[in-house]
Amino acid sequence: MIGTLDVVVLDAADYRGLAAFYAELAGWEQTYADDDWVSLRANDGWKVGFQLAPDHRPPLWPGQERPQQAHLDLRVPALEPALERVLALGGTLLRRNDRWITVADPAGHPFDLCWHPGNDGVTLLGPVVDCADPWRLSQFYTALLGKPLTHNDDDFAQIGDNGDRPVLFQRVNGYTPPRWPDPAHPQQLHLDVLVDDLDEAEAATLALGATRLQAGGDTFRVFLDPVGKPFCLCAQPG
């Protein structure tokens, strides 16, 4: 384990409006806001951030011309009332399935409403990361985050137990990575990882196969995982 998963971050031009959408939909509480960031506290210890991206271009789901890169799975006690709420708040229906409905938020990020009878309102299961090989990418994040592999099949892998902020990985044929910070090939979503020492964490992360980007500041550094997705190592506050 190199660090602790801290925040799942979504890009948006109207980041405040997007944060308000999820706060209204799921009842998540705002904990911080500034000129380019809003944080919400969700369930099970999750924190979700919304980051200003003035030139954000929404995904063209489900293709790979401008892919989603990752999405959120939200558990709901009933699908149709949840869908009605999403639409009323400015979301869009993308696809129906028997046990889940794929929708898009007002910034165009797809997410899934997953039927979970008896669920207490709308809760975040976790982020689902697109890639060509779920098992291989899960091994990188297992080492980075210290979460054990809890599910693996031909198309999906999961690290961490349900209720303990799991991260999921799904196979996408013809997967196309982002080219951050090129707005034509946006990251869409990234993870922030808290570490005790940035220098030590950087060395360990590079040894796992990540790539350091010349971006960041005194308190965080930006990397690419082995399939080209950006993520941040962030120094513990204080």
List keywords for this structure.
alpha+beta, single chain, 8-stranded mixed β-sheet, 16 strands, 238 residues, globular
What does this structure look like?
- By secondary structure, the chain is an alpha+beta fold.
- It is 18% helix and 40% strand.
- The protein contains four helices and 16 strands.
- The protein has helices spanning 15-26, 79-88, 134-145, 198-207, and strands at 4-12, 29-34, 37-41, 47-52, 70-76, 92-96, 100-104, 110-115, 123-131, 149-152, 156-159, 167-171, 189-195, 211-216, 220-224, 230-235.
- The protein has an eight-stranded mixed sheet with strand order 2-3-4-1-13-16-15-14.
- It is globular and about 50 Å long.
- The two termini are 21 Å apart.
Secondary-structure blueprint of this entry?
Blueprint: E1 4-12, H1 15-26, E2 29-34, E3 37-41, E4 47-52, E5 70-76, H2 79-88, E6 92-96, E7 100-104, E8 110-115, E9 123-131, H3 134-145, E10 149-152, E11 156-159, E12 167-171, E13 189-195, H4 198-207, E14 211-216, E15 220-224, E16 230-235
Which sequence of SSEs, written as H and E, runs from N to C?
EHEEEEHEEEEHEEEEHEEE
Mean pLDDT: 97
Strand element count: 16
**Over all CA atoms, what is the radius of gyration?**
17 Å
Ends distance: 21 Å
